[in-house]
Design a protein that fits this description.
Helices cover 45% and strands 16% of the residues. It is built from twelve helices and nine strands.
């Protein structure tokens, strides 16, 4: 009888160890996570979360589209050689800029001799894919950190091209101008709100419990809230955690009167994924 109990106890211990090991490999098992970033950008994030056991719901609150006019971009491309630096503040900015460069019959060689700044590793990766050398990546992947680095580099009288989204904070161009740089800001893409979706979003939040809602830009936050403008947002989000990729996105959430539960130390998709794991 004692031996039988011992065997049962051993089996239970083995099962517990197996379950613990499985949970360590899949720490997000059973968690429902909502991704709000643009559909064409969400695959990496989705893959990472699924590998960790999460159930992922893709609900893009933004679409990435070309600018309404290419006039400003075309003018900048025509005089690329007049710039000392080109700054890219997102992977989207790189993609749309190079797409237009190709449409104008040019390629990466048009940027030879210019110094290139990428706001973070995802942006740098897109540049390196196109055999473009990146000269500077800030320590923190936000505009304020770019300014800190450029202050040390010294950019007085330098000509800088800033390729970014149509709607973006003025912190970077204004900061560069204060340092004495001449700055041309061109909108290489826009973020727009997809049509419809408010009913589906409300149903998703009302039905099964969403454990985490992720935001990777201020636009994903503002469009998400716009979709629920007739609803009691705080009540709908009750019980779920809000995860923001960085301080700028987190500030937009807080300005909407909501609480940020998760924010990574490194403002990247891998960093955000790790922060969600640590939260649970």
């Amino acid at each position: 009888m004692t031996l039988r109990r011992l065997r049962i106890g051993t089996r239970r211990n083995q099962l517990a160890l197996f379950q613990a090991s499985h949970m360590n490999k899949m720490p997000l098992l059973g968690k429902k996570i909502l991704i709000t970033r643009a559909r064409e950008q969400s695959s990496e994030f989705t893959t990472r979360l699924k590998k960790l056991g999460a159930e992922v719901i893709e609900f893009p609150t933004i679409e990435i589209v070309p600018p309404s006019s290419w006039k400003g971009v075309d003018h900048a491309i025509a005089q690329l050689k007049s710039y000392d630096w080109v700054i890219f503040t997102s992977a989207n900015g790189v993609n749309f800029f190079y797409q237009r460069l190709k449409e104008k019959g040019k390629d990466r060689r048009s940027l030879s001799g210019l110094k290139i700044c990428a706001i973070g590793p995802a942006t740098a990766k897109q540049l390196k894919k196109r055999d473009t050398r990146v000269d500077y990546i800030p320590k923190e992947f936000i505009a304020e950190s770019i300014l800190k680095g450029f202050k040390k580099i010294g950019i007085k009288e330098k000509q800088i091209l800033l390729a970014r989204a149509k709607r973006a904070r003025d912190v970077l161009p204004e900061g560069l101008k204060k340092m004495g740089a001449k700055v041309d800001v061109v909108a290489v893409y826009r973020t727009v709100k997809p049509r419809g979706g408010s009913r589906r979003l409300r149903q998703l939040l009302e039905k099964g419990k969403i454990d985490v809602i992720t935001f990777t830009s201020s636009s994903t936050v503002s469009h998400f809230i716009d979709l629920l403008k007739k609803e009691d947002v705080k009540n709908l989000l009750k019980g779920g955690a809000l995860a923001c990729i960085g301080p700028v996105t987190a500030r937009t959430v807080k300005e909407a009167g909501l609480k940020v539960h998760i924010q990574p130390r490194e403002f990247t998709i891998p960093g955000l994924t790790q922060a969600i794991v640590e939260y649970f």
